Amino acid sequence: MNKITILFLLLSISCFGQKNPEIEKPIRNLFLAMKNADTDLLKSVFTENAILQTITKEGMVKSDSIPDFISSVSKFPKGDLDEQITIEAVHTDGNLASVFTPYSFYLKGKLSHCGANSFQLVKQNNEWKIQYIIDTRRKENCKEIK
Fold first, then answer.
1. Residue 118 in contact with residue 98, Cβ under 8 Å?
2. Is 117 helix (H, G, I), strand (E, B) or coil?
3. Interval 86-102: pLDDT, tens
4. What angle do CA 143, 63, 89 make, to 5 degrees?
5. Is the pLDDT of residue 8 over 80?
6. What is the DSSP letter of 77?
7. CATH of domain 20-136
8. Considering only CA atoms, which of 16, 39, 42 is closest in space to residue 27?
9. 93: part of which helix (H) or strand (E)?
């Protein structure tokens, strides 16, 4: 290989292999807030008009309100809700980011279900916030992420 090809490969690996902690922060805080039943932290990760949806196994899209979601999290003791994720892809363009995260969800320490989350984030006032989450949920073929 010539020097230009090697340089291009090294630059490609360093550019595409990097994580973006600023974009990941609200996502990681979402799951930290769920695990700690911390409603203040949970509220802080979302935009004012965020959307939360789930695709059912029948292929229907079910919507939930963010306030209802926060209220349901508040009813669990600290440690009962533990969603473990793997950040597989982050795509950005200016103030928009898209993040894909397979997950395993543990309820009271037991694997409950798994699936994938798709996040759309926006940068507002120099801070990334979650605008939209849609996820899948299944009980079969789940892998432990812990």
1. yes
2. strand
3. 999 999 999 999 999 99
4. 45
5. no
6. P
7. 3.10.450.50
8. 42
9. strand 89-93
Q: pLDDT > 90: what percent of the chain? A: 81
Rounded to two decimals, the pTM is 0.84
pLDDT in tens, 110-136: 999 999 999 999 999 999 999 999 999
CA–CA dist 15, 5 (Å, integer):
15
Give the pair of three-digit tokens for residue 136: 């899948």
CA angle 120, 125, 130 (to 5 degrees): 20
**Both tokens assigned to 75:** 């009813």
Q: Give a three-class secondary structure readout of 24-48.
A: HHHHHHHHHHHHHCCHHHHHHCEEE
Q: CB-side exposure of 121: number of CA atoms within 13 Å?
A: 28
- In DSSP terms, 55 is beta-bridged to 61, 136
